[in-house]
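Sequence in, structure out. First:
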Amino acid sequence: MSERGNQFISEIQSQKEVARQRTAKWRVANPARVKAHNRKFTRQFYAACAVPYTEAELAGVRQRFLAKVMKTESCWQWTGAMMGTGYGSFSFQKQPQNAHRVAYELFVAAPGTQHVLHRCDNPSCVNPEHLWLGTPADNADDRERKGRGRYGKVRQ
């Protein structure tokens, strides 16, 4: 390679190193923002890359999903894998996802990047009739209205 080509490559590498160091400093200074950014990016990435299922494949996924559900008079209780937060976990589109999000996608429509919220306030419920879509602000308002906020009840 020519001298000019080598010089060009070394300039690019030094620019990359400066950018990497700047990013590392930002991540250390803003850990909460990094976590939120990563969570949002992951949700958007998987929503964009989701492989569409054929109707026959969806029927198989629905059957596998419903095998982990105990239907009661009102709620559909998730009996499969659970996360520490009380929400169910189900492997869908080659990754573990919240069971209530999968229920909404299988029986209603794809939620995209919106939050799937519970009307019944039961984290293990996957009944599509108890689920609705909302923004992060709707989620925060619903949490406060139901008294599950940081301070336990709505402050006035």
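Second:
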Amino acid sequence: MIKNTLVVCKNTFTEALRQPIYIVIILATQIIFLFTPSLVMFTIREDNKLMWDIGLSNLLVAGLFIAVFSASTVVTDEIDRKTALTVISKTVSRPAFVLGKFLGVTGAVLLAQYLLILVYFMTVRHGVLESASDEPDYTVITFSFASSFIAIALAALGNYFYKWRFGSSTVFLSTILYSLSILILCFIDRDWKYNPANNQFKAHLIGPVILVMLASIMFCSISVTAAMRFNMVTTLIICAVAFLLGTMVHYKLGPVAMKPYKEITEQKTAALKQADPTTDDSKLSVDVSLGDYVKYFTEKPKQILPTTCAWGGLAVIPSINLYVVTDGVYDEPKPLHELSAEKQEKELQKRSMRSKYIVRTAVYTMAYTLGALTIAIMLFRKRDIG
């Protein structure tokens, strides 16, 4: 099964890279990155921070679009053309077919995301020209345009002499050249001098970028699941609705789902303070057990239905807000040697919280993806592809 899955994955990955929409989305996102520093320079303050936010939003939207269009074209077209029947009629099982399609689409999406992330960090390195005296970072400009020009030229020559696919070849070559450029720029400052301590790259943005990639993986699973049962237009509609609902579900259903926990915590905290009024609120620790929930719902049975529906909605609808970073996740860390002992402890706690948040989000993404793929296999088992 593993061998068959890898074969399907390879074919899906190759086919996704050959789709024109794949190249168009990557090119459009790069153009937006190119003009972002000029567009945000007219704000009153925090120009660079606004540029970071816009860049991360572009990465998120680009990943979602690539995931949706890749799945809806590669998977749906293969089923409509009866190619899937030929594959499944041989030795490939339906679960292996679904898993291979997911891995292939995810690989293509992550490749595009990686390339766009490299461009994003070059944009971050350049920064916003906040005053008339600021000079452009010609080092970044030179390496970025040189990488693009060389990639396009080599892809064109390969297409002419060796019949390479121009689009996919350009993506692969750009990824390699931009990776080399980023590696070199880590050691060179804007004055073309060896100065790795002042390379202007923002390492603290790696966390938010990881969250964006996790969001893309989750939407790959949603797109593949929808494509296993529905046509291209329906798949696009389902993914669009899932995205819109996902931006609201945390704010609408979250308070309803957490209402029992909040009320139980408030009751137990009030009981502890009543027993010992001198206790500091910051030192109060309350644990909520299963018995507390049973007692709560026994006393308030009307809360069972809304709480169950709220948790069901949170489980089914993807929570996009988890992947939209806040200041607490990507604030630039302060050097520990410049802080006092008390502030060093707080800074270390903040860094630990950021890492734990990313890990929890990754676990949520894995759980949601496994659930979506399980549904995809169930839907595809009952689909007539003959």
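Remark: The radius of gyration is 25 Å.
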